[in-house]
Amino acid sequence: MNLIRVIPCLDMKDGRVVKGVHFVDLRDAADPVQAARAYASGGADEIAFLDITATVEKRRTMFDVLEKVAAVVDVPLTVGGGIKSAEDIEQALKSGADRVSISSAAYRNPDMVKEAVANFGSDKIIVAIDADANDACPSKREVYIDGGRTATGKDAVEFAKEMAAIGVGQILPTSKATDGTTEGYDIQLTREIADATGLPVIASGGAGKLEHFYEAVTDGHAQAVLAASVFHFGTFTIRQVKEYMQQRGLPVSL
């Protein structure tokens, strides 16, 4: 098994780190530069910088803030939110990102993702899939876009398979139902996407206890665990999460 990566997530709005529940009821959490610096020095394997309102507000990612964050960290940085063209990807990489996460645009324009993989390499391209329960879908999970606001009718696992066939490097599924609840990841969604695609999957949405991180790997077959609330509000440190997983036999970098 590869080393399990622990990834704190900076959900960005109006230049600040925020955190909500079920993608709404956002509250202020931190200054992004200060938070990124602290997480990088505190053992983060990577940091995710997600501009969560860029698509809805029909604007590009906050590249100026991204540059400031990139300047203070020495770990890989993934940026997402408002990434909808090759120009956006190029600008993100120039601004200090190591990878980009594409969500709504991947659903609306899969050919753009295919071209991005060809132009920038699969290791640079992550597809983020926001999903919610829908018993009418084969996997009982439906793709949502526009920051979780718009239902698509598309089965989440099927969409993940289509993105894997295009050649993306990783999948980042987030469950609306569990996001921000601290009641645990959507293990079914995570595992089905991991098993169906064979790609590295980043578990996201719902971590609240140390065992949730362990379950995401052992039961959800994730190769990375992403969290926000528990880190922003001091429930756990990154090191505590890693030590817990190591004590239970999972390979991590301490």
Description:
With 254 residues, the protein is of the alpha/beta class. The chain has a single domain (5-247), classed as Alpha-Beta Barrel (TIM Barrel), CATH 3.20.20. Helices cover 35% and strands 26% of the residues. The chain contains 10 helices and 12 strands. The protein has helices at residues 32-41, 63-70, 86-94, 104-108, 110-120, 156-166, 187-197, 210-218, 229-232, 238-247, and strands at 5-13, 16-21, 24-30, 47-51, 77-80, 99-102, 125-133, 141-145, 150-155, 170-175, 202-203, 224-227. Strands 1, 2, 3, 4, 5, 6, 7, 8, 9, 10, 11 and 12 form a 12-stranded mixed β-sheet that branches. A hairpin with a 2-residue loop joins β2 (16-21) and β3. α6 (156-166) runs parallel beside α7 (187-197). The protein is globular and about 40 Å long. The model has no long low-confidence stretch (mean pLDDT 92).
